[in-house]
Structures are given as C-alpha cells and as structure tokens.
Write a structure and sequence with these properties.
The structure holds 2 protein chains of 2 kinds. Chain A is of the alpha+beta class. Chain A folds into 3 domains: 129 residues, Beta-Lactamase (2-Layer Sandwich); 131 residues, Immunoglobulin-like (Sandwich); 106 residues, Immunoglobulin-like, CATH 2.60.40.1170. Chain A is built from 9 helices and 25 strands. Chain A has a 9-stranded mixed beta sheet, with no helix packed on it. A 5-stranded antiparallel beta sheet of chain A has the order 2-1-5-4-3, with helices on both faces. About 3% of the residues of chain A have low confidence. Among the domains of chain B are: 92 residues; 109 residues, Sandwich (Immunoglobulin-like), CATH 2.60.40; 112 residues, TATA-Binding Protein (2-Layer Sandwich), CATH 3.30.310.10. In chain B, the strands form 3 sheets. A 5-stranded antiparallel beta sheet of chain B has the order 1-2-3-6-5, with no helix packed on it. In chain B, strands 9-13-12-11-10 form a 5-stranded antiparallel beta sheet, sandwiched between helices. Chain B is α+β, with helices and mostly antiparallel strands. In chain B, strand 7 and strand 8 form a beta hairpin. In chain B, helix 22 packs antiparallel against helix 23. The longest helix of chain B is centred in the C-terminal third of the chain and has 24 residues. Classes of the chains: A alpha+beta, B alpha+beta. At the A-B interface, strand 2, strand 4, helix 2, helix 3 and helix 4 of A face helix 3, helix 5, helix 7, helix 9 and helix 12 of B. Chain A: This is Adaptor related protein complex 2 subunit mu 1. Chain A: It is found in: Cell membrane; Membrane, Coated pit. Chain A: GO terms for molecular function: lipid binding. Chain A: It comes from Hucho hucho (huchen).
C-alpha cells in the first residue's frame, strides 16, 4: 500500500510529508526531488522507480503530489487517491497553491491522517469529512454523543455521502448535461475519430433522504420499453430525436450499480449539494457543431498562405458562443497579415498561432479567415510538423443527442412529492479536443 | 523594502493568523525558544509552538530534542493539539524509545474515551509507534477496540492489526488477533469488512502458505454482498482479494462474474480495473462455447475504452494494462482501434503506449487507417515518438502482408525527408522487412545506400551492413561500401563489428575473387587486434570454416534464415499470465513480476491463471500456482528468441530480432549453454576433418599431430589452441574456385542468362550455376546435358530448379558432377559443351573448367615412389613454365596449393632457392609430378611438370598460376 505521501512546491521544497510505512525513509523525499522534479529531461512517465521504490506523481499548477511505495500496490488506486486528495483539498481551501497549502498544513495533516490509514484509503467524501474536520479545528470535544455516533455511522455507513436530517424550505434540483465533443478530422474532411464524453452534473437541495430515479433517452431502455407496448407511445412523441446509443457510462458511488446492470435504471440517494451523477461516452450519430475547412499553401520558402472556413451545423435558431479557432504557425514566422469576415483575429507570436475569436454564431452559417504568413529563411532541415487546427466553442445543446426524460424524487418520510420539487435542466455542449489536420 | 515586508508580516500576524509563517522561521536558538513556548501555560501558545515543531519536521529539520516537551502536551482535551502531538510521536518515537513509553498511558486512556473519534484516533496512532516495549502494552486496548460497539473504531482497529503484524508478527499470532480479524469479515458494517479484508490480504502475503484468507463460497458470498455497499476504496480491497480466489467450477465462476460486472460502471477507474482483473481471471474457467462467455467479452470493451477519458496518469496505467489484455485476449478490443489514435496534446507517455497498442491491434481490416495515422506521427516533434512511429510502420509491414508494399513506400518517403533519426530508424525496420519478404523489395537497396554516410547509430549501421552483406551480389560496389566501414573498425560498437565481420565473409563467399584481401583484413582485425572475445571467437570460427571447407562455410553462413514472426514484442506467456493476475497494480505498469521490484517476502509468490477445469478440484489461492500452472494459452505464437540460439547467432542469424520489451532470459544459464555449444560445435564442425585430413589448410598443418587431441579436450583447451593457431601463418585457403563468368548471355537464349563456375568441395566436383530470367514470362522445366568430353564429366543428378523462375528472378543451383561419362578428347582439353533446356527452348554453350577440380584428395605420392616415377618418365615429357609476379614464400605457396589438392612431398633448399616437389593425381588416374623453384626475393617461379600424358601439362600449369595468384 501507499508508504508515504509528499507535497512539493515547484522548486522541490517539501510542503507536506507524511510517512505511513516503515520501509519508506526520509531519503525517499530527496530521491523524488532529485530524480523527477529536478530531472533535466521532461518527465517521461507518471510512475518512476528509483532504487526499488516507486513514486506516483500528479501535478496541480506548480505543486507536485507524490505517493511513494515499496510494494506492488494497486497503481490505479494510487492515482485515483491522489486525484481525490486534490479534490478534497480544493473543496476545503480552494486552489491548490503553495500559499494555500502552507496556510492549511495542519488541516492537510489531519485529512491525511483520516483518509489514509497505514496507506489504505478510507472514506474520503468531503460531505462526510466536513462534519468533523473543519478549517477551524476539529469538532468533537463539544459534540453530544448522538452527534458523534452520527458522524461515525456516516463515515463508515452505507450512505457515507449524505447525512440525515437535511432540511430545505424549497426543494430544488439543478441538472446540467455537460458534453465535450471531440473530433479529429483529416484535411479532406474525413472524420478520423469523434466521440462525445458527457457528464450529468447535479446540484440537489432536497430534504431528508430522498430516493431519486433518473431517466434519459438511452436506446437500450427505449427499445426495451418499445417491446413492452403502450408506455412508449407518449415517450416517443415528446422526444424529437428518438434515442441514442451510449457506448459506456460510469456512475457516482451513490448509484445502485447492480440495479443498473440488471434493469438499466439509474436510482440513487443523492449527496447534498454539488456532485457528478454520471459520465458517459457516445460515438454514434454525433452532431458535429462545426466543420473546419483548412487550406494551407506554401508560396516559395518564405511565405505561407492560409485560408480557413468554418461552417456551423445546427439549427439556425440556436447560437454558439465563445468560438475560438487556433491556427498554428511555423516557428520561423516573421509576420502575419490576417483578414477575417467575422470576429477578431490576432497573431500571437508567443503561442505560435493565429487566434481567431468570434463571440456568437448562429446555426447553418459560415465564416472565413485568410492569412499570409511571412517566414524567415532557415537552414533548419526539419520540416514544420504542421500541428492541427484546433477549435473551441460552446453550444446550447447536447451534441450526442442525449435528452433527459425524467428525474423523479421520492421521499416517503417527509411530506413532499415529486411535483413539489423545482427542477432545472440545462444542456451545454463544449468542444473537447476538436482538431482538424491541415 | 525590508521594513515594509516586516510590517506586512506583523500585520498579518496580528489580524489574521496564517500558518504559512511557520515555514519561515530559521532563527538561531529556535529550538530553545520552542522549548519555552511548549512549556507555556497558555493553551494557544502551546498549540502554536507544536505547529511550529511540525512545520520544522516537515521541511526536514531535526526537532527530536523537543520530544519530552511535546509529549507533555499530549494530555489535552483539544483534539487538534492531540493530533499534532500524535503526528510528532509517530515520527520520533523510534528514535526516543524510552521517552515514548510516557505516551502509553495516554493511549490506553484514550482507547476508553467516550468519544469514538478519540478511541479510533488512539488506536490508529499507537499502531504507528514502532517501539517493541510499547507494542505489548497496546494489545489489550486493541483487543477491546476490535470489539468496539462503534464501526468507526472497529474499522480502524482492523487496520491496526496489520500495523502490529508488521512490527511483531509473532505477537499478533500469539494474541489471537488473526482470528478476531477473520471474524470481522462477517461484520455488519461494510467498511469494517473491507478494512479487515485489506489487513488479512496483506498479512497473508507474508505467509504464503497459511490459509489465512480461507476463502470459500460462504465467505465469498459475504464479500460480494459487502462489495455493493462499501466505499469505492473498500470495493477495490475486496475485488483485489477476490482475484486471489479460485472458484470450484465454471458455475461458481460464472456466478461471481455476474456479481462483479456491475462494478465496470463505477466512476473510479481503480474499481473498474480491479473488476476487469477478476473477470479476466475467472473467464479462464468458463467454457468458450458458453453464451455467457461471449457476453462477458462484449461487456469488457466499453469500460476499458472509457478509462481512456480519465486523467492522463490513469490513462497511462490503463494503457499499460490494456497492452496486457490485448495480448491475452485480442478479441476484446479488436474493433476499437480508433480510440487509441494519438491526440496532439497527449502527454508523451500516453502517446508511446497508445502507439504500442495500435500496432497490436493492426489488422488487414484497419491497416489503411493505421498507416495514415503513423505517417502523420512520423512528422511530430518528439524524437522518441517519431522513432517509435517509424518502427511501427515496419512492424505493420511484417504483420499485415497486404500492407507491406504501402509500408515500404511510406518508409521510402520518410527516408527522403533526410531527417537523420527518421532515416536511421527506417533502415532498421526495412532490414526486418527484407527478412520477412525475401526477394521482394530489394529494389530499394539503392535508395538505402545513398544514405550510408548519415548513419551514426550502431543499430542503423549494423542494419545497413547486414543489408549490404546479404545482398552483396546485387550491389555492384558492395566491397567498397563494406571497406569504407572497415576503416574505423575499432571505433565501431560490438554490434557493428560483428555485423561487419559476417557481412564481409558473406561477400567473400559470394564474390571470392575480388574480396580476398578484404576478408583477410577483417579476419585479422577481428582475431588479432580486438579485445572482444565474442568478436574474436566469431572471427576464428569463420576462419576455420573457410579454411576447412568452403562448401560447408557457404552452407552455414549463407544458410536460409528462418522467417521472422509477425508478432513482436510479445510478453512471454507465463509472465503474461502472471501479469494478468496483477492487473491494475504496479506489476502491470512495469510489465514485470512483483518479485522484480519488491523487496523481501511480499509479493514474491507467483500468481497463475486458473485452469479451465470442470469441477471437483478445489484449489485455494496460495497454491494456485502449482495446481493450475499448466494452462497454456491457445496457440502461443512462436517468437524468435532474442539471444537464445547461440549457434544460430554465430552463423549469421544475428540480426537482432525486432526488439523485445520482455525481460531478458536468465543470463547465467544461457551463457553456460553457449559454452557447451561452442565446444561441441567446434568438435563436430572441425574435429572430423582435422585428423590428418588432406583438405586441411597447410597453415594448420603445422601441428597436425597435436590438434585432434587438444580439440577433444575440454572447451578451454580447444579455445586456447585456436588462439595459438591464429597467430601463425597467413590465410589458410580452400580449393581454388574461379569467379563466375557468363557462359550464356540472355540475348542468345531468349532471356535466360547462365553464368557459373566449377568447384571441388569435399571431393565432389560441382558445377555452380546462376540462372537469371530476363524475359517477361515464367520459365520452368529446366534440364541439363553435357557433350562427351576429355575427362568423362557428366551430371550426377538432374538440375534442381524446383520452382518456376519468374521474370527478373535469379536462382543459384549447384550441380554435382561425376567423371564416369563418355570420353572424347576435346580441344582445348578442358572444354565442355553443355545443353540446357527449359519450357521455351534448348540452348547450347561451351565453357572451360579448371583442371584443378579434377585433382583428387589422395594425390599425395610416397617419396620413394615419387623419385622412381620422376626418373621413370622420359625427359621429353617434361615441360617448363614461368610463373611471374608471385610474392608468396615457398611455405605459403605450398599451403595454397595444397588447398587445391596439389601436395608437396618434399622440400629442399639449395643456395637460397627452395625446391618443392609435388604430386597431383587426376580423377582418371593420371599422375602429374612437379618441381617448383622459388628463389627468395624473386617474384618469378619456375615450374617443371612431368607427366606420362604431356597434353595435360598446359592445363595444370594454368591451374598453378590461377591458384597462386588468387
């Protein structure tokens, strides 16, 4: 299991060091600094073995988190834990920075004591942790016996993510379908790979211990219902696009996985506040909101002509926002002249790219940019690698075609019904890695 | 500025307390001040002081001197302060064991506290205090906590047992904690179960033969129930533990799989990977025709793909595991090629791993896409990545035959870029392509040769040299090319030296006339001027081979090479099985068994996949290895061993097969094997001939009596002898073989070109022919016939051209000849008229053979007989000739001649002039006697020949000249 956990600043100075196992000595702290942080070469692997000791590291801004072990640990678990540790710290004190870590080092030690025991990760749900570890010190000495046992049963219990006795005057639910659409397109416009990775993010302000059920236009469910007969008629007529094929999905630990496996229904007792209910991935019938058509011409050895057309491909009534097209330029660029039909375009020498920004663009439109790039003559034999043209945008629909069919709330003990809950649903599609080769 | 900073700091101090200030104190006398503060009456001040101590501890300062003062702060009801003191204790207790005892009371008391959080804190901390004296005091509190009413305390106590076991295993067993721990597996609280499972698994690892985990269907059922209820981490502990279980039969295996599959949808990648591990392992037991087996295979793909949308570090872990899974069960991901396409912004470690998997998944169906991607990658920036991409193109060519042509042209395009490392990498892979598809893509050799000068890496140089040597007959200036490498022979790496040696020997065997000097040069460089034993040994072996039996040398050095296998880089099957049992863990990331990187007893136990058994046989986890080791994977592809076949290696199969990432085979055993092989091989290779063999070069003849004995002696002696021998005479040679000449030009024979020569190898006369089809159509049905000739030469068998000869194809055949055919005197005497037939026509040509090939091996005359015969032959039959410009001394000449069965019977030295008396016997029984006069310093030899059939003298003289001058 994890033998120790260290946090370093960008210089390699130790900010936090917690050793859990006897086989990890103090020299491990230095070994990582010397071999990884101060290494001359770029880091070639997130797992490093130095003298039979393995180091796992992740970086957040310029802070290094390293877990160290001498055993054959579950590597996936170690990384998951490191991410979790970052989440927990972020939820306590915001950004993970040297300043924040130094300011909260006592708190971090307390957390590390609680969520990692002898190198075994323990309950690390912030909801539960915050009931007894706070930035103002540890609650505990002034609590009543009931409160104490409530804490311990929550930390160890089946529903470790939610405490009892939550009350809201107004029961509200916010549901966001956030999708990032990824594309790799050949210069000729052939889709080399495309997928949507989506998340269903919820904010729930519900009283008591509600039981929720979430439904979407999952092809398997719809098809199954179709065989059943009557029920689907209504369902089909309301949802415009019928159903989507979900390649795979993963769920927050509050979702009953065995129930999903057998009935494909998503039921859960939600955590209080913000959480991510599920993630999913689709690859079929994706709506690609934009098409990028590049044209790069080399005029002699010192000039490039670039023309890029973008076309929006969705309902004209919808508006895409925050559109940004990034056209890479060679390293020996000396000057750039740009003309664009819409928005603003600028050559950013420090980023070796022309950045073209458009605030808004409606569906079924097209726009164009052309640029002349002057090059310095070089005797560098190596050809310019022509990185792909990438694009960023935000659209108010789900490119996968996912639709929320229902989100039902049942709380049998308290007297509010599904109808009393105010529900908000929003769809946002963003670009993930949206690239066209040129 | 200074004061401003200070002011700021002071203000900060006053208004808002920030803990970062603890990191800045570096004053002198700090310890002293801290001591005072720790002993302060004020609670706040005490707490501040402890914080400072912890901060100092963190940055690595030694604050152990404060031990008693800090421990004094332990007795407090402030939980935060208590935790800080505990943190300090855990760090320094070991260095201050006597003082640490002071803490025991507090622990014991805290374990009885009303607050479960405090009880748990105490039991958690005391397990971390590794002081023998203390541990004994802790047994009672621990026992109580293991049975505590609060699950939070129990789950902490469960882990504490593992801690205690790490300090004092005997104590834990004596106190019966292991049984209590086992009971906790049935606890009502899922987290207690999970921690108990984790603790037991760890303890069981250090007792491989104990039956600690005692997994049986009942306990498995409990674990599976807890699996649905506990935290994500607990699920990992339980799944990892389940993976050690071996179900009794396929039914149980299926029912466990069914209950584990829902975990594949968990958001935590580690849960998913651990579930994959259990499924991959238990699947082994399911019959393949079972519907469920197929369902399970289908269910595995999506979650594996989903892992690729995790954070990059986890992607890396996932990819390393997918690499294993793809090798074990390629069917799972065969349709998912696209998700492994490299994204421009992927970290380099993700890119490299994806590339690996792309090659593994490449098939005829997706090769076009893969190639297009690889070509794209070959223009990226990262050198390692580009190299790997180029290499991948070569691997695709080898794997998917239909794509080979496209791959080769892609590689040629890349070579045109002239980017140095791209060119070198491309040449290395083209060499492999040549080996996989012989006689197909050699047309590109010219392009390769153009880049000779830019190669500066050993692997690329060696590959290029191999290509030149292998295709020496098609490269006009092969000798020049190789010679150019020879100049800096000693600066080359071993790899290149060995290759150069082999290549030149190959060249020599193919073009013996022009390259004799070159081969002598390289042999002496390798054997005399090199310190490298491998190089020297190989040099000697070639030397001996060439001198003893050039025919055998040809057979050995130019032997047909086995094809290289399609799949490269495969992990050896038993290791793969073990790694599959370690999915998700470090072993699967390193692709090494845990014993390779874990110290001590932990993890040394080798895990194996269960066998596909019916039922009845029950094997528990620890001894699965012995019980079920036999489950061989279906149709394991054969891999060229990386360094296994030493003999093969010596004999020019040495082109390192495409690199393997697998672990090298155990070294010691290998080398031992090598020694044996060398010894035995030499004996059988050379021993037979050495015992006074007439074919033996005279250079070795110096000590013929000693040699057989020493060679039969143990290896060491034999080798030593080898070295001795090398020092002496120049180049021991085999029978003289004239260079091949064109006998039948293509123009005269409707596109069939025949060139050839004659040779005598091991007593058999051979006609060596090269048939080239320069016509547009395929040629078949070859046959050969001789006209009657002076010595009755006739083919001893049919012309062995078994496969049709395609356009532009070339074939080498050797035709054994006999001397029992019809005789007719020809003019010149050694003229031979030949008819060759094929499906097109019959063609005639004539050629002349060197008479030396008719000299038989038993042509050494007794001295007395020689004298008598010499006198007996009339002087009219004597003819004298002059051989001009021959710079050999008499010994060297004698040894050369002996290679062609011209035997020196006696030597006389008269007034600085060596007189050599020699005898020759022709295949038809005619004896020729000769007297060779060699004057030191005079390059002109005089030779007198006496023979009863004086007609042959002219021919014999020509032979002398040819042999001595070549």
């Amino acid at each position: 299991m994890i033998g120790g956990l260290f946090i370093y600043n960008h210089k390699g100075e130790v900010l936090i060091s917690r050793v859990y196992r006897d086989d990890i000595g103090r020299n491990a702290v230095d070994a990582f600094r010397v071999n990884v942080i101060h290494a001359r070469q770029q880091v070639r692997s997130p797992v490093t073995n130095i003298a039979r000791t393995s180091f796992f590291h992740v970086k957040r801004s310029n802070i290094w988190l390293a877990a160290v072990t001498k055993q054959n640990v579950n590597a996936a678990m170690v990384f998951e834990f490191l991410y979790k540790m970052c989440d927990v710290m972020a939820s306590y004190f915001g950004k993970i920075s040297e300043e924040n870590i130094k300011n909260n080092f006592v708190l971090i030690y307390e957390l590390l004591d609680e969520i990692l025991d002898f190198g075994y990760p323990q309950n690390s749900e912030t909801g539960a942790l915050k009931t007894f570890i706070t930035q103002q010190g540890i609650k505990g000495q002034f609590q009543t016996k009931e409160e104490q046992s409530q804490i311990t049963s929550q930390v160890t219990g089946q529903i470790g993510w939610r405490r009892e006795g939550i009350k809201y005057r107004r029961n509200e639910l916010f549901l966001d379908v956030l999708e990032s659409v990824n594309l790799l397109m050949s210069p000729q416009g052939q889709v080399l790979s495309a997928h949507v990775s989506g998340r269903v993010v919820m904010k729930s302000y519900l009283s008591g211990m509600p039981e929720c059920k979430f439904g979407m236009n999952d092809k398997i469910v719809i098809d199954k219902a179709g065989k059943g007969g009557v029920t689907n008629e209504a369902g089909k007529s309301t949802s415009g696009k019928q159903s989507i094929a979900i390649d795979d999905c993963t769920f927050n630990q509050c979702v009953r996985l065995s129930k999903f496996d057998s009935e494909r229904s998503i039921s859960f007792i939600p955590p209080d506040g913000d959480y991510e209910l599920m993630r999913y991935r689709t690859t079929k019938d994706i709506i690609l909101p934009f098409r990028v058509i590049p044209l790069v011409r080399e005029v002699g050895r010192t000039k490039l002509e670039v023309k890029v057309v973008i076309k929006s491909n969705f309902k004209p009534s919808l508006l895409a926002q925050k559109i940004e097209v990034r056209i890479p330029t060679p390293l020996n660029t000396s000057g750039v002249q740009v003309i664009c039909m819409k928005g603003k375009a600028k050559y950013k020498a420090s980023e070796n790219a022309i950045v073209w920004k458009i605030k808004r663009m409606a569906g079924m439109k097209e726009s164009q940019i052309s640029a002349e790039i002057e090059l310095l003559p070089t005797n560098d034999k190596k050809k310019w690698a022509r990185p792909p043209i990438s694009m960023n945008f935000e659209v108010p629909f789900a490119p996968s075609g996912l639709k929320v069919r229902y989100l039902k709330v049942f709380e049998s003990k308290l007297n509010y019904s599904d109808h009393d809950v105010v529900k908000w649903v929003r769809y946002i599609g963003r670009s993930g890695i949206y690239e066209t080769r040129c | 500025m200074e004061w401003a900073n200070q002011l700021c700091e002071n203000r900060q101090f006053g208004s808002k307390m920030t803990d970062s200030k603890y990191f800045t104190t570096t004053k002198k006398g700090e310890i002293f001040e801290l001591k005072a503060e720790l002993n302060s009456d004020k609670k706040e001040k005490k707490k501040e002081a402890v914080k400072k101590v912890i901060a100092s501890m963190t940055v690595g300062k030694d604050v152990s001197a404060l031990f008693p003062d800090v421990v004094n702060c332990m007795q407090t009801d402030n939980l935060e302060l208590k935790k800080l003191v505990y943190l300090y204790l855990m760090n320094y207790a070991k260095s201050q064991p006597d003082m640490a005892i002071m803490a025991v009371n507090t622990f014991v008391k805290d374990c009885e506290d009303a607050n479960p959080l405090i009880r748990a804190l105490a039991v958690r901390t005391m397990g971390c205090i590794r002081v023998d004296k203390i541990t004994e005091y802790l047994c009672e509190p621990l026992r109580k906590c293991l049975k505590d009413e609060d699950p939070y305390v129990r789950k902490t106590a469960a882990v504490c047992v593992a801690k205690l076991h790490d300090i004092n295993a005997q104590l834990v067993e004596d106190q019966g904690f292991l049984d209590t721990l086992k009971d906790l597996i049935s606890d009502s609280n899922p987290m207690v179960v999970a921690n108990a499972v984790a603790a037991l698994s760890e303890i069981a690892e250090s007792h491989p033969n104990s039956n600690l985990l005692d997994l049986n269907p009942q306990s498995i059922n409990k674990l599976l129930t807890a699996l649905n209820e506990c935290t994500e981490w607990g699920q990992i502990f339980i799944l990892d533990c389940l993976a050690n279980y071996t179900p009794r039969d396929d039914r149980e295996s299926q029912s466990i799989c069914e209950r584990v599959t829902p975990r594949l949808s968990h958001a935590n990648s580690a849960v998913v990977l651990s579930a994959v591990k259990v499924l991959m392992k238990f699947m082994e037991m399911l019959p393949k025709d079972l519907d469920y087996y197929g369902t399970l295979l289908k269910k595995l793909a999506p979650p594996l793909v989903t892992l690729l949308s995790a954070e990059p570090e986890l992607q890396y872990v996932a990819l390393r595991n997918i690499n294993l899974i793809v090798q074990k069960r390629p069917e799972i991901l065969k349709h998912e090629m696209k998700v492994f396409f490299v994204k421009y912004n992927d970290p380099i470690y993700v890119k490299l791993e994806k590339l690996d998997i792309m090659i593994r998944l490449a098939s005829q169906a997706n090769i076009a896409q893969v190639l297009a991607e690889l070509k794209e990658y070959a223009t990226e920036v990262d050198v390692d990545f580009v190299r790997k991409a180029v290499r991948a193109i070569g691997r695709c060519a080898i794997k998917v035959e239909q794509s080979a042509e496209r791959c080769v042209s892609t590689l040629l395009d890349l070579i045109q870029t002239k980017v140095n490392y791209v060119v070198q990498e491309a040449i290395v892979v083209i060499k492999d392509i040549f080996r996989k598809y012989p006689n197909k893509y050699e047309s590109v050799i010219a392009t390769l040769c153009e880049n000779l000068d830019s190669l500066d890496e050993p692997e690329a140089r060696a590959a290029m040299i191999w290509i030149v040597g292998e295709y020496a007959e098609r490269i006009d200036n092969a000798d020049e090319l190789l010679e150019s490498f020879l100049e800096g022979f000693h600066d080359e790496s071993t790899q290149v030296q060995l290759q150069l040696l082999t290549a030149i020997v190959k060249l020599f065997l193919k073009k013996p006339t022009e390259t004799q000097e070159l081969v002598q040069q390289v042999l002496s460089l390798a054997t005399q001027d090199s310190d490298n034993p491998d190089l020297r040994d190989r040099g000697y072996i070639y030397w001996r081979l060439l001198s003893t039996d050039p025919v055998a040398a040809k057979e050995v050095v130019l032997a047909e090479k086995p094809l290289i296998s399609e799949e490269t880089d495969l992990i050896e099957p038993t290791l793969l099985e073990e790694l599959i049992c370690h999915i998700g863990t470090l072993a699967s990331v390193y692709h090494k068994p845990p014993s390779a990187f874990v110290e001590g007893s932990r993890g040394v136990m080798h895990k194996r996949l269960p066998a596909r058994t019916g039922s009845g046989e029950s094997t528990e986890s620890p001894d699965v290895g012995t019980a079920a080791g036999g489950s061989a994977p279906e149709a394991a592809p054969s891999i060229i061993p990386s360094q296994g076949d030493l003999l093969g290696d010596l004999l020019n199969l040495d082109m390192a097969p495409p690199t393997t990432t697998g672990p090298p085979p155990p070294n010691t055993g290998m080398q031992m094997g090598g020694m044996d092989l060398l010894g035995g091989g030499l004996d059988s290779l050379l021993g037979g001939d050495i015992g006074g063999s007439p074919a033996m070069g005279a250079g070795f003849g110096a000590a013929p009596a000693v040699m057989p004995a020493s060679l039969n002696a143990p290896v060491g002696g034999g080798l030593g002898d080898l070295f001795d021998l090398g020092g002496g005479v120049g180049m021991p040679m085999g029978a003289y073989i004239p260079p091949k000449t064109v006998w039948l030009p293509a123009m005269k024979a409707k596109g069939l070109e025949i060139s050839g020569t004659f040779a005598r190898r091991a007593g058999v006369i051979q006609m060596e022919l090269i048939l080239t089809n320069k016509a547009m159509s395929v040629m078949t049905d070859f046959a050969i016939q001789f006209n009657r000739n002076s010595f009755g030469l006739a083919p001893a068998g049919p012309l062995q051209v078994l496969t049709p000869l395609g356009p532009n194809q070339t074939i080498e055949v050797s035709l054994p000849l006999s001397t029992v055919g019809p005789v007719m005197k020809m003019d010149p005497l050694n003229n031979l008229q030949v008819a060759v037939k094929n499906n097109i026509d019959v063609f005639y040509f004539s050629c002349q053979y060197p008479i030396s090939m008719l000299f038989v091996e038993d042509g050494k005359m007794e001295r007395q007989v020689f004298l008598a015969t010499w006198k007996d032959i009339p002087n009219d039959n004597e003819s004298q000739f002059q051989i001009k410009d021959c710079h050999l001394n008499s010994d060297a000449a004698s040894s050369k001649l002996q290679g062609s069965n011209i035997f020196t019977i006696a030597k006389r030295t008269v007034e600085g002039q060596d007189m050599l008396y020699m005898s020759i016997k022709l295949s038809n029984g005619i004896w020729v006697l000769a007297e060779l006069r060699v004057q030191a310093g005079n390059p002109n030899y005089t030779i007198s020949l006496k023979c009863r059939a004086p007609e042959v003298s002219q021919c014999v003289f020509q032979c002398y000249e040819a042999v001595l001058k070549n």
